[in-house]
Amino acid sequence: MTAPYILYGSPLSPFQRKVEAVMALKGLAYDCEEVSVMAMPDWYKEISPLGRIPSLRVREIAEDGAAGTITDSSAICGYLEKCQPDPAVYPADPFDYGRALWLEEYADTGMAIAGGLGLFRPIIFNLFQRKEPDLDTARKTWNEKLPPLWDYLEGELDGADHFIGDTISIADIAVACQIAQTDMLAGLPDKSRWPALVAHYQAMREHDCFQRNNAGCAKIVAKLVPDKFDLSA
Length: 233
Description:
- The protein is α+β, with helices and mostly antiparallel strands.
- It folds into 2 domains: 5-83, Glutaredoxin; 94-224, Glutathione S-transferase Yfyf (Class Pi), Chain A, domain 2 (Up-down Bundle), CATH 1.20.1050.10.
- The protein is 56% helix and 7% strand.
- It has helices at 14-25, 42-47, 73-83, 94-128, 135-157, 170-186, 195-206, 211-224; strands spanning 5-9, 30-34, 55-58, 69-71.
- It has a 4-stranded mixed beta sheet with strand order 2-1-3-4, with helices on one face.
- It starts with a strand and ends in a 9-residue tail after the last helix.
- 37% of the residues are buried.
């Protein structure tokens, strides 16, 4: 049976991971179609003029072209929440809703720039191109740029299981998606310094909503990175 949605992108993208988690939580069926950010095809550039992944196609609207597509993970997740409001991933309380949006943005911008551009890409993109990984850049990111971000999140959790309330929200999903990006290559933050954050991530990683993406990432990374890199100073 044809799924109602197509998700264009790559399982390695933390933003696709976020959308996949939301779709899984809501029980939405979807197909995946690979799009490489390193060699983006012209047909995809028409869908995503900013060159971002993922994009979502709603098949009942259009089967091809830009029609029926939404680009940007936050826009996609907002659309999915409207289509399938239960279970909710955005809090109902106005203040909590605003906090959830902030933490999603914190992850999608602050964590993505530091961990994605500063650690994931210098390693994985180089490996894809059969180059030596840029471990100097990755090590500087791991030891200098990521710890302040983790400090903030540790304080926001304050020992709780979730960032907002007692159920999974977009805040939990977005943060876990970005930590997964560096975990694939370098492992977890120091549990003695960030105990709540590490426990939160480990619980999220094992949640059913991440399993399809986990499997897709593991299959790709295993071919390139047999062992995680030690980036300690």
